[in-house]
Design goal:
The complex is a heterodimer of chains A (434) and B (418).
Chain A (H helix, E strand, L loop, with lengths): L18 E2 L19 H6 L47 E16 L2 E8 L5 E7 L3 E8 L8 E3 L23 E7 L4 E6 L4 H4 L5 E7 L4 H5 L4 E10 L1 H22 L2 H6 L2 H4 L5 H9 L8 H4 L9 E4 L10 E3 L4 E8 L5 E5 L4 E6 L2 E9 L1 E4 L4 E7 L5 E6 L16 E6 L18
Parallel strand pairs in A: 2-5, 4-9, 10-13, 12-20
Antiparallel strand pairs in A: 1-10, 2-3, 5-7, 6-8, 8-9, 10-11, 13-18, 14-17, 14-19, 15-16, 15-18, 19-20
Chain B lengths: L1 H8 L2 H9 L5 H5 L15 E14 L15 E4 L4 E9 L5 E10 L11 E11 L3 E9 L17 H4 L16 E11 L3 E9 L5 E2 L2 E2 L7 E8 L12 E10 L9 E13 L4 E13 L9 H6 L2 E12 L7 E12 L7 E13 L2 E12 L1 H6 L5 E17 L9 H5 L6
Antiparallel strand pairs in B: 1-2, 1-3, 1-19, 3-4, 4-5, 5-6, 6-7, 7-8, 8-11, 9-10, 11-12, 12-13, 13-14, 14-15, 15-16, 16-17, 17-18, 18-19
The chains are: A alpha+beta (434), B mainly beta (418).
């Protein structure tokens, strides 16, 4: 896997952004309080010790003075800094290289797919910077198709928004494009290719972008040391395979034309479905162009039907668990990086929904199931209050399948590292369907 | 695999009805074909249905065109080469793919009220993985897979474009195109293919021992083929070519064994999105037969010969999509041991696309046979035909779970069977 080439002034950035334990440990963890009575009988009925460890009461979480509710600011949606500014002397610029290639990705043992990859991984590598710093990303296209990077949720200069034919020309094969923007606003965001998004994002070109607040309301309220990013997505491997093949063929044709002036002279926007404006589009139709979406061209098109549902590119049981300890707060950043809504439910716990699309909510919401819609991000705080090994999964149960077979898909486990200390005995087993 | 289709054809409600009536549901399965390991009908294979409808009004056919001297009509409504093909394919445990294809094809004799109107041209089971493919059953002759020509029908100018079946009596032209085959094809990077095969070429000709009834292997051979990248013909120099050798075990009384060498290829002369021009060339050379004269049409398939066929095709695609095509296909054939047996064939073919897969077509066919050859064809020296009609092609895939083996992704990146 090719990683970022980081500039020297980024050396202080965390190295393992998806499971961070390097933040200052400002949590004082209190062990659970024992002494609950009345459950002994139940324990006997279950054939366990007279007072089972799990009957010892609910572990407590420290309750620091909370700065919530967040201040309501009627002008709060304005960019913190002017988006069209350029870096000034002394500003921190984090420099990254991002290369798009075609490779294979294993969703599960026995299930591989050809995909577009940012720096060889799916999802693409996480970018994590501090609010107000500058981000410079050099995109290099080493695939036969065109690409961009759209910085989803970032308030940046229009030219940096990554919309092909909208804010920039798409980046063609062997071309480079430099994105430069100030990291703002703080929060959980993501990035994705905006060329034929239905395919390119589904087929791999998506990753998380975390802009850490200098003064983090969430961390102040729920002191935590570990956090997890969970980019959730889905893929129709059959549709993606077919479409990717078609796009690669088209891309290779375009690349061949680029190297041949004679062929280039034949190519025009009509062939690619590109038009300058509505007028030229209508004129082309008058001249005989038949849009690809019309019935004579497409008939009954194949509907996209996702068959694999993923967390960070993997389906259960190959998803990574979320680790927690009793008394600990953890932050989970959920990113709707796919095309379908998902409803993530955590067993045995309520959690706090603290941020939406990066911004703190006016007041945290107590939930046990949170909807994550495409293009949205939701930050939640899980508190270590109930030792065990708990399912965390999409409750739209189509998504807890692998190719239609349950269990699988968008599911992981919240696992207490100290569960056994609290009398919970479970086997670290995985389940698939025979 | 046979049960795969028959079980698929048995709707679930039908099975349920049998159970309700007191019959064990497996009673229905008992009516299907025997298989070594009966299976639950739970895995839905990928199903592909391909159809080609070719309907033309033919004018000016030679009245003596029927081999053997029968008189043919001077005009007809021609449905031949119309076909329907059904395929089922399934991923196997270790990455291979198993498939079954079955299809029928309308014959030229469809209107005559005699003979078989539908010819089973495809019925084979196939195994393939990245390294090899093996197939057994009725399908295209391996010798007919090097080059295909842009004529209206696959049997147009067949005496030039195909290695002819020395066991055919000539009444069914598809006996030159299809046979019963067992083949293994190895490949290197899915670009170069070596096909090793044995065949039963369909035997319909009378022999010195009487009418043929044989079903045994009567032909074997090997071919090597190189294929360019798919889908890039319009923009890159695309060359596809192949060579092959075939041995046909013709009885001594019928001239003895006939061997064949064949070679051909396709090259695009003018890569262009809008104005594509390509050239196809094929040479079929047969040797080893002792025949020095023709007693009937079958002898013309056995005698040593050399045929050269070439076609130039122009495809106009103003928006990158085909709009019309014009092609000229010409063939010349001579016999090394039979004098005055040369022949020339020409097909001028025009196709205008009206919609996806639906074309209006026009073709002029001309064929000249020298005296010795025309005698074997009932005296038909000259044949002229004008054909006007429609062609409809479709290829629909259900339960799409298997990608093309030679996809660009598989060819240029890591091979993934699905």
């Amino acid at each position: 896997m090719k990683l970022f080439h980081k500039s020297a002034d980024e050396a202080a950035l965390p190295e393992e952004p998806k499971s961070r334990e390097d933040a200052p440990s400002d949590v004082s963890r209190r062990q659970f309080v024992t002494g609950a009575v009345g459950a002994a009988g139940a324990g006997l009925l279950l054939g366990q010790s007279a007072v089972p460890a799990w009957a010892g009461g609910t572990p407590a979480i420290d309750t620091p003075a909370t700065p919530w509710p967040a201040t309501f600011d009627v002008a709060g949606t304005a960019p913190p800094s002017p988006p069209r500014e350029m870096p000034k002397a002394g500003d921190v610029i984090h420099k990254f290289e991002m290369e798009v290639t075609i490779g294979t990705h294993e969703i599960l043992p026995g299930v591989k797919a050809h995909m577009f990859l940012y720096n060889g991984t799916y999802p693409g590598p996480e970018i994590r910077v501090t609010e107000g710093d500058w981000v410079q990303v050099d995109l290099k296209n080493s695939s036969p198709e065109n690409h961009t990077i759209h910085w989803h949720g970032v308030m940046l200069a229009n030219e940096m928004d990554g919309v092909p034919f909208g804010t920039q020309w798409p980046v063609f094969t062997k071309q480079n494009y430099r994105y430069l923007f100030r990291a703002q606003p703080a929060g959980t965001h993501f990035y994705h290719c905006h060329v034929m998004t239905t395919l390119h994002q589904q087929a791999g070109l998506v990753g998380s972008l975390i802009i850490e607040a200098k003064d983090d309301l969430v961390k102040k309220t729920f002191p935590y040391t570990r956090e997890y990013t969970q980019l959730i997505s889905e893929i129709d491997t059959n549709w993606a395979r077919q479409s990717l093949n078609e796009m690669v063929g088209m891309g290779m044709s375009m690349n061949a034309m680029n190297g041949d002036s004679k062929l280039m002279s034949e190519m025009n926007g009509r062939m690619m479905g590109w038009f300058q404006d509505k007028g030229s589009f209508l004129k082309a139709i008058k001249d005989g162009y038949i849009p690809a979406y019309t019935t004579p061209k497409v008939g009954m098109n194949q509907v996209i039907t996702p068959n694999f549902f993923m967390i960070n590119g993997k389906s259960f049981p190959m998803t990574d668990p979320i680790m927690i300890k009793t008394g600990e707060n953890i932050r989970v950043r959920l990113i709707g990086g796919g095309m379908q809504p998902h409803f993530l439910h955590l067993h045995g716990h309520d959690f706090w929904h603290v941020c939406q699309d990066g911004a703190p909510l006016a007041s945290p919401l107590r939930l046990n199931t949170i909807p994550v819609f495409p293009g949205t991000t939701s930050d939640i705080i899980i508190q270590g209050t109930n030792p065990g090994s708990w399912h965390f999964h999409d409750h739209s149960d189509l998504s807890t399948t692998n190719n239609g077979i349950h269990p699988g898909g968008m599911m992981t486990m919240l696992m207490y590292e100290d569960a056994e200390e609290h009398g919970v005995k479970f086997k670290d087993a995985i389940q698939t369907n025979s | 695999m046979r049960t795969l289709l028959t079980r698929t054809a048995m709707p679930a409600f039908a099975l349920a009805a049998l159970g309700f009536a007191g019959l064990h549901p497996n009673a229905a399965l008992a009516q299907t074909q025997q298989v070594p390991i009966p299976e639950e009908p739970s895995t839905a294979p990928q199903i592909e249905i391909l159809g080609t409808g070719v309907a033309t009004l033919d004018l000016g056919r030679s009245r003596n065109a029927v081999p053997g001297g029968g008189r043919a009509s001077g005009s007809q409504i021609n449905l031949s080469d119309t076909s329907l093909l059904v395929g089922a394919a399934q991923r196997l445990y270790k990455g291979g793919i198993g498939s079954l294809s079955v299809g029928g094809l309308a014959l030229d004799q469809t209107n005559t009220g005699r003979g078989t109107q539908i010819f089973l041209h495809q019925a084979f089971a196939d195994y393939q993985d990245q390294k090899l493919e093996a197939y057994i059953g009725r399908t295209d002759q391996p010798t007919a897979q090097i080059v295909t020509f842009p004529t209206l029908r696959g049997d147009d100018l067949v005496t030039f474009t195909n290695l002819l079946n020395p066991f055919s009596n000539g009444e069914n032209v598809n006996e030159h195109r299809y046979s019963n085959v067992a083949a293994v094809t190895l490949n290197q990077k899915l670009t170069t293919f070596e096909n090793f095969h044995v065949q039963h070429l369909i035997e319909s000709a009378d022999t010195s021992r009487g009418p043929s009834v044989g079903t045994g292997l009567n032909s074997y051979g090997v071919s090597v083929q190189h294929l360019g990248l798919p889908g890039l013909e319009a923009v890159e120099k695309y060359i596809s070519y192949g060579v092959g050798y075939e041995h046909r075990s013709v009885g001594r009384a019928e001239g003895g064994s006939s061997d064949a060498l064949y070679a051909g290829g396709v090259v695009n002369l003018k890569p262009s999105l809008v104005n594509l021009v390509d050239l196809r060339v094929l040479d079929n050379y047969t040797f080893g037969s002792n025949l020095s004269s023709f007693h009937d049409t079958s002898d013309t398939f056995r005698a040593n010969s050399n045929s050269v066929t070439a076609a130039v095709r122009y495809l106009h695609s103003p928006f990158g999509k085909p709009a019309y095509q014009v092609s000229l296909t010409a063939g010349y054939k001579s016999y090394s041991k039979v004098s005055k047996a040369g022949s020339v064939g020409i097909a001028l073919t025009g196709v205008k696309r009206l919609g996806e897969g639906f074309d209006v077509v026009a073709q002029y066919l001309y064929q000249h046979r020298d005296d010795a050859l025309s005698s074997a064809y009932g005296g038909a020296r000259e044949e002229n035909a004008v054909q006007l009609g429609f062609v409809f092609n479709f290829d629909t895939i259900f339960n799409r779970t298997i990608g093309p083996r030679r996809s660009l992704l598989n060819l240029q990146h890591k091979y993934i069977p699905d």
